[in-house]
What does this fold into?
Amino acid sequence: MTVAFFMSEQALITPETRKLYPYQEQAVENIFSRLVNLPPNANLLFQLPTGGGKTIIFSEISRRYISQYKKKVLILTHRIELSKQTSDVLQNLGISTKVINSEVKSLPQQSQYECFIALVETLNNRLQDDDQFLEDIGLVIVDEAHYNSFRKIFHYFDNVNILGVTATPLSSNKKLPLYQTYSDIIVGESISSLIDQGYLCEGLTYSYDVNLSSLRIGNNGEFTVGSHEMLYTQAVMQSKLMEAYEEIGKGTKTLIFNAGILTSRAVYDMFKKKGLPIRHLDSTFGDRERAETLEWFRNTKDGILTSVSILTTGFDEPEVETIMLNRATKSLTLYHQMIGRGSRVLPNKKQFRIVDLGNNARRFNLWQFPIDWKHVFVAPHLYLEQRYKDEWDYEMENDYQMPDEIKQRFLNSSAEAFIVRDRYLMSLRKGLKPQTVLEESLEDHFGRIKDNAADFDEAFELFSLLSEEVKYRVKQFAKCINATNNYVDYQVQAYNSKLRRRIMNWFVE
It folds into this structure.
């Protein structure tokens, strides 16, 4: 098991919240100033981490738009929970709102409404029957815009602007990148910034190494459900999950995310036999059964809810303290969505725990790791092609093989190997920053130079002899954190500069 600080992403936003936080106010100003200058049929995308308050931001934009242009706003969602949440916020802002769900077959009297909230599939059915189903729409807002299901109804709305909002501007369909729909992107506050300001929780990630070599990748680029079920229903994986829960999450309100229903039910059975308070939830549940399950979870202090995909969006339970990823994913979006369920800040909750049983943190880096979302928007293919391998490369398990003639110059030092991968995992286990590995490596090299150099000139000669080993270790470290070649070049220069300074200061002292 490895452990690392891991930042989360959920600000304290409720339907009753009227006053925008400063960063939300700034986002509204930025977006609205761009919208008013957009020509008809030009579309804009806005990115903000899950929990940053996208709903309250686009609700305020709706209010301003309706007030200034006297036209109506259509908000598209793909889940009933999202439509209810959005409706509550809009009503609280004094906007007359109509939710278009399966029960709404016609809208003969539309003048009383300023804003419509529609489930995309329902609205698509209504527009196929009557392409004039909605009147006087001036702005369309798309929640969770990374889903491609919305595109099929855009052609019904001519001469309007579309504002898409998402935490991860990476299309769910790699053949239909978002830059084909949206002309530009506005990037909001980062996860780390929101944490620093106290709007999001700080999280702690516990990573358990899992052999994922049996997983298969489907046509959509994601690990298949079938191969997940084969792996995660095995006794060894079930035991690892229970061990992780008892070590990390016991006594806390916990969400467990699985890839398949069989796995989730197996998890339910195992926890139930232990006498633990647990429920199972998946997409086959009816509305009433689902509502009852969620109500039970909300009212159970240390309740455990094991689920399949269904709670990644549109679900909000601030008291969740532990997120368990009992699955692997190749989707950066899904990775963020799952973890975001536990990141809401409460007066007595400033941290939450993430248990990773799918090598996901290794695949995507830690939660707080900066992501250039503008680059994701213009070059999504670079983020869909995962370079990650679930078996470590051979060189990751070995130290640099120093030539014998160089070894002879370091006979006064210990011959103990310095395995970067092992040091990296150890730093995570201790909750240290990954950069600690390079700091330890530098100390190792400086110590060997001190042990074997008789004078200043010999010290710098030994320094030169270590250059290949320095490059080797930095490259290993870069693989651990999935860094780029440019990062390697920069770190090698920085490493050598620091080591050179240490040598010079040693002789000055």
Q: What stands out?
A: Residues 2-8+196-372 form a domain with the Rossmann fold fold (CATH 3.40.50.300). The two ends are 42 Å apart (CA to CA).
